[in-house]
Specification:
Two copies of one chain form a homodimer. Chain A is mainly α and 402 residues long. The first copy, chain A, has a single domain, classed as Na+/H+ antiporter like fold, CATH 1.20.1530. Chain A is 76% helix and 0% strand. The radius of gyration of chain A is 21 Å and the shape is globular. The first copy, chain A, starts with 6 loop residues before the first helix and ends in a 5-residue tail after the last helix.
Chain lengths: 402, 402
């Protein structure tokens, strides 16, 4: 067990401790603990202390965290509600993904004088909602079971897919200077096939696992087999070009208590196994999920941002685009006005997919250093502010008060 | 979340699945599942399929596994039994650590014609028992609570420390050609200080955690704070030159139900918190601990061993040394003859510290390729065979039958 490189244990110890400490302190002041975790990342990372640098190991642990979170969210999806909200969610997702692209393109092209590709990258960065942050906040507030929350979740998943689809096309466009309808269609087909196949695979695996548990009384198989399945689905999703969190999410769906495959209504995972699964997922989530949000904080270097007035106005304008475009998307949903606005608010935080856009923009030379800083700033700003707005809005309007 | 390097998720999925599958199958045939897990490593690793290679990420996950295991073992230590077995365990450890070194040195020096240093490395490889494997077997058989098992555990911990101490001295000797009593004394002092200080630190942390849980009703702090403490203690142990598993073990001790610091008898971690801790540790262990044993299998490449008769006899002779030296150590313990032999048997499996000896021997040029192969062979052989012997012996003699 000896010999070199053990600093990583100290780093993980620090991250786990600070993330929970900040999370709990923030919680006590009514702030979602996810923000405390991002702040822990800012404190440990290059922005403040500079003790911890993002690396491959921490990245993997943070991915495990987001995979567990999305699996858990899938596990809790209520299909009866989803059936009723499907079209609503789709409307929110499509409007909420394309509006930021169009408005962002406009700002880039006409206010900042960028090229077409760069302008589309600016818009694309603002297309996808961060499922992780939004749903974590709803979960912490105990609001996941409401219809509006289910629409938000479904819409966030759909616009993540749209975001990745857009990224794939734009990236190709940036590389070759041409748009290839063929590969976009092929990509869409892959993702679509995955979305159909994954729940079946997960469902069969769930039934097999449940059989082993009941037949041999060996409940020790649950934890390793469950994680194995999660990681496999995440990998498979990534392989077909979808975000890996989509794989984890579909896996969770297949295990959820209300999941049924048409015509095989009689086969369901036993309630005892499901209880055990929940008992396994919870401690794993408490350890790994904060790692993801700490990692978001680690990846930001506030010191690198060279603040000028010009950048500041662009930042404000793009933040406005980020807020307004999602806000508008919510209005087209059926429901009370309070619900509509809340859905728009909840779609505001950008996260993983947005950061990937920014990163690819920088790597391919489309974004220069200052544009890169501004775009990261906008993504971070939406992530920081939206939870406060959501909380404030809920308290103010008495939404979900029943 | 996208972009490169996601094969690792597939690899972890494969490892988790196969380790549990083999573990459960082996279990059903009465073989400890730890052997199934090592076999899973041999199958996935360079020995058979060659799909998975040892790497830094898997190494970290396997370390987390062994840290969790040792913490859990510490948690279950019964201090009343340990108080009664302290001297007995010390005798087993000292004899069981020095006898293999002397006998191994003799074989190396006079049968194989090796240098003094190389001969001492041969002996040193056989000095330390693998706590992980031995205790895992006892745990799986539900025998941890017996006096003999407590002696075995304590002796394995002490001889691990002796093994690492020996390694530190020998390594320095190999590098400089001189033995430095000063640095050995300093090292011993560090480790001793750690052994005194660590349980206090862990105890204070445990009390603080328990206070937060009760005062704020926030039980979400338990899982992250507990792992943070474990990793910190593992890191601190490694920092003072002790094996990191020692840190995890002392941490577990401080949380155990029977742990008391003199004069502060009234402060104890509440039973509710301890129940929660056990509920958290179990799923984490089921996921991570097999990773360690799979990693042991991954690190072995059976194909690299060039089998000749000469090597075979040396292998047999050293295996005999490995078996006999530990077997003799058990005889000096008080108790029934059956107990004495069993203690000797249980001390046979070599593991982590032995493999570190072999690795350092190879890296510093003391072991050539064939000697390296033989030494790994002996370590693996003891690891494979001892569990069968332990099982057979228990069934045959009816030990622990009460």
């Amino acid at each position: 067990m000896k010999g070199g490189g053990h600093e990583i244990l100290l780093i993980i110890a620090l991250i786990l401790f600070l993330a929970r400490l900040f999370g709990s302190i923030f919680s006590r002041f009514g702030v979602p603990s996810v923000i405390g975790e991002i702040v822990a990342g800012l404190v440990l990372g290059p922005s403040l202390l500079g003790i911890v640098e993002p690396n491959e190991v921490l990245k993997l642990l943070s991915e495990i965290g987001i995979i567990l979170l999305l699996f858990h969210i899938g596990l809790e999806v209520d299909f009866d509600i989803l059936k009723k909200t499907g079209i609503q969610a789709f409307i929110v997702a499509v409007i909420g993904a394309f509006l930021p692209v169009i408005l962002g393109y406009g700002v880039g092209r006409y206010f900042m004088g960028l090229s077409d590709v760069a302008s589309l990258f600016v818009g694309g960065t603002l297309a996808a909602t961060s499922i992780g942050i939004t749903v974590r906040i709803l979960q912490e507030m105990g609001k996941m079971k409401y219809r509006a929350s289910q629409i938000i979740l479904a819409a966030a998943i759909v616009d993540d897919i749209l975001g990745v689809l857009l990224l794939t096309m734009l990236y190709e466009f940036a590389q070759n200077g041409t748009f290839q309808a063929f590969s976009a269609a092929r990509y869409s087909m892959y993702v679509f096939t995955f979305l159909i196949a994954a729940p079946f695979v997960a469902y069969v695996a769930a039934m097999a696992m449940d059989f082993v548990v009941k037949r041999y009384g060996d409940h020790r198989v649950i934890a390793p087999f469950l994680l194995s399945l999660m990681f496999f689905l995440a990998y498979a999703a990534e392989k077909v070009g979808a975000p890996e969190i989509l794989g984890a999410f579909t896996g969770g769906l297949a295990f959820s208590r209300r999941f049924r495959i048409p015509f095989v209504r009689n086969f369901r995972v036993s309630s005892l196994t499901l209880d055990r699964i929940e008992g396994i997922i919870e401690p794993l989530m408490l350890v790994f999920t904060p790692m993801f949000f700490v990692y978001v904080g680690l990846e930001i270097n506030l010191r690198e941002i060279d603040f000028t007035w010009n950048l500041f106005w662009i930042f404000l304008l793009l933040s406005l685009v980020a807020f307004v475009s999602k806000g508008i998307a919510g209005i087209f949903v059926k429901g009370s006005m309070a619900e509509r606005f809340f859905i728009g608010l909840a779609m505001i935080p950008r996260g993983e997919v947005g950061l990937i856009f920014v990163e690819l923009g920088r790597m391919s030379g489309i974004f220069d250093a200052s544009l890169y800083a501004v775009m990261i700033g906008v993504v971070v700003f939406t992530t920081f502010i939206a939870p406060f707005m959501m909380r404030f809005y809920i308290n103010r309007t008495g939404l979900f008060a029943d």
